[in-house]
Design brief:
Length: about 325
């Protein structure tokens, strides 16, 4: 079974519990709103960049990116989703994005063959529908396919596939305006407006995550932006990192970053070494560019739930 089919089942078919980790984009949305109020209405663009997939897209207005609920994919939606299934995300006009990992030939001919001979037949089989329409096009210099699928005569999925060096699938129930805006902005990172920042951002995230893993709070504190040191003492950072040790002793995964002008945020997923405890932890890093260098300005770390204090003894 190919990687694509595995991811497709995660994104299109199965019901999963969503943790909805979206603090990073909300932080940058507040930043955009403040900038919007100060410059006469021209709101800066929030852009998400995926490190491993090598793609980037503009985050639609008032939407958030959850990159942790389905590992390897991003969920983009607006508002609060009270139910916890992917179908509810799609019903609420939410969008999922994930790389296509088994399309290694980047030619236009190979892309069309892959869509017609592999993707669409398996889509029909897995979703039990033959009511599928495919349209090929070009966008931002890449081959793309727009696939609409109906069940019982009603729209069920709309899928946008991008070819090129970094193939990507974008999935929703219908092709809404936010969906169109996102796909129109979808690009390989090396072609995008943030191409000059990607490697520096990756390195800043990697270095900071390693300091957290190695419990090097003093080094992290010394290299941080003034904003972090103004709001936190070194002792507080040391205590927070020690409390997070059950998580940071394991693996720290950072899938990408949300970027706006001279700031970006990245979500950390912590996987414990304890095989009996599979619940991940989550943290947040926010960076600001100061004198040409990315410096961390806020750090959020997981903290194991403390053991409740015993109830006081009743007086006799």
């Amino acid at each position: 079974m190919t990687d694509k089919f595995s991811i497709l089942r995660k994104i299109v078919l199965i019901v999963v519990v969503l943790l909805l980790v979206v603090a990073g984009v909300k932080y940058l949305q507040n930043r955009r709103q403040k900038a919007n109020g100060n410059n006469g209405g021209a709101a800066p663009t929030i852009r998400y960049m995926n490190f491993e997939g090598g793609y980037t897209f503009k985050v639609p207005k008032d939407h958030a990116v959850d990159e942790q609920s389905v590992p390897g994919a991003q969920l983009v939606y607006t508002g609060q989703i009270t139910a916890k299934t992917l179908e509810d995300v799609y019903t609420a006009s939410g969008i999922s994005i994930h790389p296509i990992t088994d399309l290694t030939d980047h030619s236009g001919t190979a892309f069309k063959k892959y869509v017609n001979d592999t993707y669409v037949p398996d889509l029909k089989k897995n979703l039990s529908s033959n009511d599928v329409e495919v349209k090929f096009d070009k966008q931002n210099g890449d081959d793309v396919a727009r696939i609409s699928l109906k069940k019982d005569g009603q729209p069920f999925r709309f899928i946008y596939l991008k070819g090129g060096n970094h193939p990507v699938a974008v999935i929703a129930k219908q092709e809404t305006d936010p969906f169109k805006n996102l796909t129109q902005s979808l690009q390989d990172t090396e072609k995008s407006e943030v191409k000059g920042e990607v490697e520096a951002i990756k390195q800043a995230v990697k270095s900071t995550a390693q300091l957290i893993k190695d419990q090097k709070a003093k080094e992290l504190y010394a290299s941080a932006a003034a904003g972090l040191r103004e709001k936190n003492t070194e002792a507080e950072l040391i205590a927070a990192m020690k409390a997070a040790a059950p998580f940071s002793d394991g693996n720290i995964t950072i899938s990408g970053a949300t970027y706006i002008s001279d700031e970006f945020s990245a979500t950390m997923r912590f996987t414990k070494l304890d095989k009996n405890d599979q619940q991940p932890g989550f943290g947040e890093l926010n960076f600001k560019k100061i004198d040409g260098q990315w410096k961390v300005q806020t750090v959020s770390l997981p903290n194991p739930t403390p053991t409740p204090a015993p109830a006081p003894a009743k007086k006799p």
